[in-house]
Amino acid sequence: MKKTQWMIYTKRADFKLLAARFSVSPVLARIMTNRGVGEDEMDSYLHGTLSELPDPLLLKDLEKAVRILLEKCREGKRIRIIGDYDIDGICSTYILLTGLKRAGARADYDIPDRVKDGYGLNMNLIEKAHADGTDTILTCDNGIAAIDEIRAAKEYGMTVVVTDHHEVGHDASGVEKLPSADAVVDPKQEGCRYPFDGICGAVVAFYLIRVLYRAAGIPEAEWEELLPFATIATVGDVMSLKHENRIIVKEGLKSIAHTRNEGLKKLIALCGLDPGHMTAYSIGFVIGPCLNAGGRLESAKVGLGMLLETDPDRAERAALHLKELNDERKEMTNRGVRAAVAEVDRAMPDRNVLVVYLPDCHESVAGIIAGKLREAYHKPSIVLTDSAAEEWLKGSGRSIEGYHMFRALEEAEDLLVKFGGHPMAAGLTLKRENAEALAERLNANARLTEDQLTEKIWIDTELPFSHATKRLINELELLEPFGQGNEKPLFGLRGVHVRSVRVLGRNRNVVKLMLADREGTFMEAVAFTDGDAFLQEMGDRRVMSILYYPKIDDYMGRSSVQAVLKGWKF
Questions:
Q1: What's the total number of domains in the chain?
Q2: Of 428, 453, 478, which residue constitutes the final position of a domain?
């Protein structure tokens, strides 16, 4: 499968001085330094609040967009919000619809159907908006690539405001290709002074509503009620948890405990989560997939409808339906992953960019399967599926560091009908006969080195068991939320002796060990893996190197420190 290499951070700083200045341990100071947090950022990293968010007006055209929308509100013009069918699009649409209606707008929404319409604005949505007497189209989480569609909307006499966060296209000479909208708000466009372009579409919408509320004299507290949805989108769209994203998610997870949104409350309860102790994991692997499931298997309007529902009973029914859809999606994904891995191993073991066609795969789970392939092989991966139009295929891709997937697709633009995305993810449509040509072109242009194709597993520091105390574990909570760009700390240890080992669980997928480090300190450890494969790998050997994260294990009234193993070598 994939090649891995354990790497230990060697960044230098006066960790004792930093520890004293910020009232943390030297271990915590080292971890923050490893994450690229400079001394001038550490206080904000540890204690940042919403008051430290950058000025939204630094976003190019945002002030113009607000001015246009307020004018439309006052004139009673019809505004149609057009979002996207994923979690970012759903949350963006909810934020804009809630904010505009609060400001008195005649606003409604539309979201493209994943299968019938595909990603973003299309001519069907433009025609429908015109037929419905829409005066203004407001996009969210899409629109930056809709050059032809927005031109058509303008020819119909409609006002168009784009809010997006995706990459901006360029022509053959490198000139930026922007749509002819009345205002374009996208932190990735040239000339935008906003200091961090890694925000999601819902955060762009969140900022727009903040400025709209200020201009309309609506209390700031009402804007903060929208924070949970900017948080859910940031985690669900896998944005890097750095800078303001970290503040938004950290504060937003707390704010979920007080949300008045009936749909969100019901979904959290049905998923067995505690609203007072939400984590990025809760969002990324439980709530987010449920919200996405509607758009994957039926319509994104199912998830959005749940968020807009005010009746508790109807909200609960909608939440239950989303959870059931997500269970179905999980099974479809598992089947697709098995088929994709078999195809890669059979037909393309030497290719550096994986382009896999799965004829029996529902196109809505292609992106998830592509992500699983990337994890398994540490290679850029694209999964192609059949489209409603028989002559076309649709695809979704996930990338690795060092391979800019959007730019790679730009180099193959002549083979594509449509594409868009980020450095790390993309969606595309192409003619069926161009599938193999696309795979060959991407591999010929890939320029990936052996080093880039080797997954780096970064170790924060060596940590003897005697240093893995309950006090340290409690202090590590200051680093949360963990996620993309702010990974959970990982500690390493060499020369660890296995004193005992046993396999537990009905599926024999839990390995319990008693370990002793070179100092003679004992610690219980657990590994969640194929137990029989672990025993076979260990054989007669009793000394190992480990990667671990310490946690407090409470069992039968007894509290002890336990090492959760994340990697091992015998």
A1: 4
A2: 453
Say yes or no: 140 and 17 in one domain. no
Split at pLDDT 50, 70, 90, the class of 263 is very high
How confident is the model over 360-383, as a mean pLDDT?
95
Same domain for 356 and 489, yes or no, is: no
The answer to whether the CB of 140 falls within 8 A of the CB of 89 is yes
Domain with 495 in it: what CATH number?
2.40.50.460
Return the closest-CA partner of residue 155 out of 120, 179, 119, 190: 179
Could you tell me where the beta strands, DSSP code E, fall in 69-111? Answer: 78-82, 106-110
For 280-289, how does the pLDDT look when each residue is reduced to its tens digit (9 = 90+)? 999 999 999 9
What tokens appear for 465 in the block? 């068991």
For residue 363, pLDDT over 90 is answered with: no
CB count, 10 Å around CB of 422? 20
Residue 59 is predicted with a pLDDT of 98
Same domain as 462, residue 444: no
Residue 39: both structure tokens together: 């001394």
Spatial separation of the C-alpha atoms in residues 500 and 196, rounded to whole Å: 50
Q: Using CA atoms, how far apart are residues 260 and 224, in angstroms rounded to an integer?
A: 12
Residue 258 lies in a domain: no
Q: How far is CA 10 from CA 29, 63, 107, 165, in A?
A: 13, 44, 54, 34
- In percent, the amount of the chain with pLDDT more than 90 equals 92
Q: Which residue has the tokens 């790497």?
A: 7
In a domain, 157, yes or no: yes
DSSP symbol at 390:
T
pTM summary value:
0.89
**Phi/psi at 333 (5° precision):** -65, -45
Single-letter residue type at 67: R
